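One-letter codes give the sequence; the fold follows as tokens. An example follows:
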Amino acid sequence: MPSSRRWPWEVQKVHAHRREKQAQQDHRLRRWLTIFLPMGLGSVVVLLLMVWLVRGVDASVQSQAASVVIIFLSLGCLLTGLVIFVVLLALIAGTHRLYDEVPSLARRLLNSLYAARRTLETIGNKATKPVVRWQVARAAMGVLWKKLRFGGRS
């Protein structure tokens, strides 16, 4: 018969699942209250305003209002297109300028990397020079000792 005692991690997992479920429900509610409700109310208000305007005026005023709306929509599209065109021209000009500058920048970067490599090699050589000298001196003493000990025979 299984025991009714639950391990602490099992209890925490259950509580975490409950908290996660509650957080998801809160998120859904906030999404409805902050996004969909204002958008829906705004759409209803705009539709009611349009119906009120269309029903309350004659055909000539409706035609003029439609013309004004078309002009404003066209101006918005033209201005957006102009901004995109200017951005594209700026990107083309910047790319052209960079195309001319990149080789000299690359050369300077490569030269600075070579200088850094030489500096690091010099520092490394200075740090290892005493050790290498000691090893050479030890090897020379070993050879000299062998020659003295064995009398020139190996």
Q: What stands out?
A: The chain has two helices and no strands. Helices lie at 8-56, 59-150. The longest helix spans residues 59-150. The CA atoms of residues 2 and 149 lie 84 Å apart.
